[in-house]
Specification:
The chain is built from three helices and seven strands; from the N terminus they run E-H-E-E-E-E-E-E-H-H. With about 130 residues, it is α/β, with parallel strands linked by helices. It is extended and about 70 Å long.
């Protein structure tokens, strides 16, 4: 039903600002694919650390449990590979546009250094 339907952007309650995506080493699978697919869009800024999931793509979906009949050995093996960017170097995660790394002081104070970086970016944008 929706295959041949074109949707127009909503005009009411439409957000026109900058979207910030926070990433880190614990950003895997679909979250990495999400960050990778949006990083080049206008008014989207990826902030944080390199993702744990691959920027090239992944195979982290449809992973059945298989048990070999004779030995009873169990294993898991993905059935598909999803490639998002074939030009991307394999083995790396999505690199943020704005790096926000933890510091010893931020960890001591239990500070969310990525959110603080986003707040700083918003303040800088507002002062221009």
């Amino acid at each position: 039903m929706y295959d041949n339907k074109a949707f127009k952007p909503k005009s009411g309650n439409h957000f026109e600002g900058t979207t910030y995506i926070l990433t880190g080493g614990n950003t895997f699978s679909a979250a990495s694919l999400f960050a990778k697919s949006l990083i080049d869009q206008e008014d989207v800024i990826v902030v944080g650390e390199e993702t744990g999931g691959g920027a090239y793509g992944n195979s982290a979906w449809l992973i059945p449990d298989v048990t070999l009949p004779n030995t009873g050995v169990r294993y898991r093996l993905p059935l598909f590979r999803l490639v998002i960017d074939k030009e991307e170097k394999k083995g790396n995660g999505v690199q943020p546009e704005v790096l926000a790394l933890p510091t010893v002081e931020a960890i001591r104070r239990n500070e969310d250094y990525k959110i603080e970086k986003v707040k700083e970016l918003i303040r800088q944008k507002g002062s221009k």
